[in-house]
Hints:
- By secondary structure, the protein is an alpha/beta fold.
- The chain has a single domain, classed as Alpha-Beta Barrel (TIM Barrel), CATH 3.20.20.
- It is built from eight helices and eight strands; from the N terminus they run βαβαβαβαββαβαβαα.
- It has an eight-stranded parallel beta barrel with strand order 1-2-3-4-5-6-7-8, surrounded by four helices.
- Helix 6 links the parallel strand 7 and strand 8.
- Helix 1 runs parallel beside helix 8 and helix 2 packs parallel to helix 3.
- The longest helix is centred in the C-terminal third of the chain and has 17 residues.
- It starts with a strand and ends in a 5-residue tail after the last helix.
- The mean pLDDT is about 95.
- The structure holds D-xylitol-5-phosphate (DX5) and zinc ion (ZN).
Amino acid sequence: MKISASILSADLLNLERDIKEAVEGGIDLIHLDVMDGHFVPNLTFGIPLGQRLKDKIPIPIESHLMISNPDRYIDEYTSFSKYVTIHWESPVQVTRVIQKIKEKGVSAGIAINPGTEVYSIEDVLDRVDYVLVMTVEPGFSGQKMIKESLGKIDLLRGIREKNGFNFEIGVDGGINRENIKEVVSHGPDIIVSASAIFNGKIKENINFLRNAMSVSVNGPGNS
Ligand code: DX5
Ligand code: ZN
């Protein structure tokens, strides 16, 4: 199980310091939350930061595009990302954009909001590399998890197994020390977190999450 650190909760004036600490702490991916103030009510960072991160940081980037027109920027985001994830709810031809991402040799992800059911994306599950289950409404870090969405991870695992698909399943939003074991018990492949990693002592936070993850997966004492 991988840990993906969303830098949305990092100290932006000390971004390099915070990311280095997270990398040393053992994160597997950097999660770049790209927001346009239109698809979601918040505005964050984008292409220049992603390019700079790729130059400086030795671990892969997953770009989570919460923007209305992801189709316009596929060349740019695929140039520095290992995964590019677009939203099912964005007003684009999702299958075409997924195809474009894959043609660049980058893993294509589809994210679904808490209000979107798994059956909505059934037709694209044969061609995506990654499904990101949102457990908060996209837009901000530090929100309370909408636990009803966790069941989608089980559903997706079932569909994957039944059909021999091989997409990874990520979960994003509201993960914290209290609910990490419950989240892990649903069996996602990638855990995304901003505040539970960057608020407070970063390495200690990552250790806590990692320990909780191994205990949940293997049972106490079996790791
Ligand atoms: C929400 C973002 C999340 C967010 C997670 O729109 O997609 O990645 O940064 O933040 P936490 O882990 O604090 O809920
Ligand atoms: Zn995200």
